[in-house]
Design goal:
The structure is a single chain. With 283 residues, the chain is mainly alpha-helical. The two termini are 22 Å apart. 72% of the residues lie in helices and 4% in strands. The longest helix is centred in the N-terminal third of the chain and has 25 residues. The mean pLDDT is 79. Strands 1-2 form a two-stranded antiparallel sheet. A hairpin with a 4-residue loop joins strand 1 and strand 2. The radius of gyration is 18 Å and the shape is globular.
Amino acid sequence: MAWSPGAVSPLVFVLATLGIAVLGGLLGSLVGLGGGIVVVPALTLGLGVDFHVAVGASLVAVIATSSGAAAAYTRDHLSNLRVAMFLEVATVAGAVTGALVAGLVATSVLHVVFGGVLVVAALGMVTRREDRASHPVASSELADRLQLHGEYPDPIAGRTVGYRVARPGLGFGLMYLAGITSGLLGIGGGTFKVPAMDLAMGLPLKVSTATSNLMIGVTAAGAALVYLGRGEVNPYVAAPVALGVVAGAALGARLMPRADPRRLRGLFVVVLVVTAGQMLVAA
């Protein structure tokens, strides 16, 4: 797909895109969204990039971001590898489905879908303010068999916090929906993955965020192949986006282990609501 930045000079465009991507990577790493939640609206609304090209660039960046952030979170023992491998089957299938559907849907419809998804996710997070790590969850035979339960170090509490995983079947179904949003909107699927693991499966927010970062790269890879085949991955856009998002995500990964879960949740909700409003207005 041919596309150019129009009246904006190439240097200004690259620098602006790079700055947007750094901010997107930082926020995405802290709340497990992959950066696309900021990058796609900013590129389309602020710089006039075609929506599908912005999504293609965001997916490439998500792949790069996930690699760096996931390594850091795994080193800090925040990610749950068994949960990630179990849920990734559903998210990849959903991502390919969403990418195929995106080629058939009008951009205005995608804007509305993007905004609606963010509103729903924000409402879900607002209704759950406390970290679930301190509360018991329903027992699950499947979670027991797959040994999905785990623990993570909490520097703020000064101890290791154990947790149990609930309703893995429900989480698996929600992950397919998360994959669809990734393929449609280029947001890594973290918008649904974090609330699904936090609210439906009972994982602590930090673990949900870290595990989401581990998963989003594989999810995005499935969708990116579809966009690449349609010629919607533009190197002129994708390169600065990928570089900036990786830099921002690296900073976020360093900040996250000592971050307050309640503040993370608040940041998550604010970003979702602001972005939803922008996309709905642009529809």
